[in-house]
Amino acid sequence: MTSDRPTNQDQADNHFEERLRGFRPIAPRELAIPPRPAPWTALAVAASVLLVAGASFFARHSRQSTAPHSFVSPPVTMGTLNAALRDNDETFYRFLDDASPDILSHSQRGTVLFELGKE
Amino acid sequence: MGSAERSASRMKFFARRKLRADEVQPLYQQHGPGLLLYARSLLGRKHAAEDVLQQVFMKLLEQNANPEEPRPYLFRAVHNVALNMIRGESKQIELADIEPWFEAPAQDHAARVTLTIELMRIPEEQRQVIVLHLWGGLSFEEIASMLAISANTVASRYRYALQKLRAAMQPEGSR
């Protein structure tokens, strides 16, 4: 016949377990958690990048629009050249001067005029 | 479903979100002493054990999930990291490293040193079980799942450990 009543051995074990539980493990040192960047920091970084990109785009755009070669000269056709030649030589040569960068670019790498222009 | 499987399924992760520092700190406060004791019972050296805890909690902060049941998860994580450290350094607990693992209870100042030494002396598998159960608060089933052994084996290891400690810690006159 078995009994559910605790034996002396069980009681001794329980008592000893309680005694052991009375010993409290030493606590570890403080947890050193590196600070995580706040969400607004990421937003600020993104805004700065956008600002710099926008500024650089604006600067490039404004430089291009003020560059001399962006001057829009009238299209050179045989008709306009004939008319200019009939008026006077000065108008005719001015037309040719204006159109020449487009026709024979000396600023484009690889062209003969570019190579000659370096010398 | 077996008890070990049930226990394992309880330890699965919710893939939800990262834990914040203010959520991790209370876990550290609550389980830190038991985890440190367990790490020291495997490694011996206090600094190495504390490094293990730091690693485990940093990982907990970095991963994009949080454990459903933190206690078994944390003990398992400490177990794995400590064993990796042992494999890497091939170090064993040395009695020369002894610093008490426990705060002194008011009535039992010298006993904490004795307990530390006796814990170091018993076989590692018994030491693991008794530390995890008594000071880690894990059930035999949870320990069985963590160590991949049966709950009966856990129970018998626990009994052996308890007997040895009790014999060693009895006052001289009563042995």
Low-pLDDT segments of chain A: none
Strand order of the largest sheet of chain B: 1-2
Oligomer: heterodimer
Overall shape of chain B: globular
User: What is the first-to-last residue Cα distance of chain A?
Assistant: 118 Å
Question: What structural class do you assign from the helix and strand content of chain A?
Answer: mainly alpha
The number of distinct β-strands of chain B equals 3
Compute the CA-based radius of gyration of chain B.
17 Å
CATH T-level topology of chain B: Arc Repressor Mutant, subunit A
- Topology order of chain B in helix (H) and strand (E) letters: HEHHEHEHHHH
- The number of domains of chain B is 1
SS field, number of helical segments of chain B: 8
Provide the CATH architecture of chain B: Orthogonal Bundle
CATH superfamily of chain B: Winged helix-like DNA-binding domain superfamily/Winged helix DNA-binding domain
Kindly estimate the percentage of residues of chain A that lie in beta strands according to DSSP: under 5%
Helix content class of chain B: 55-70%
What is the helix content of chain A?
55-70%
Of all chain pairs, the largest interface belongs to: A-B, 18 and 33 residues
User: Would you list the SSEs of chain A in sequence order as H and E?
Assistant: HEHHHH
Shape of chain A: rod-shaped
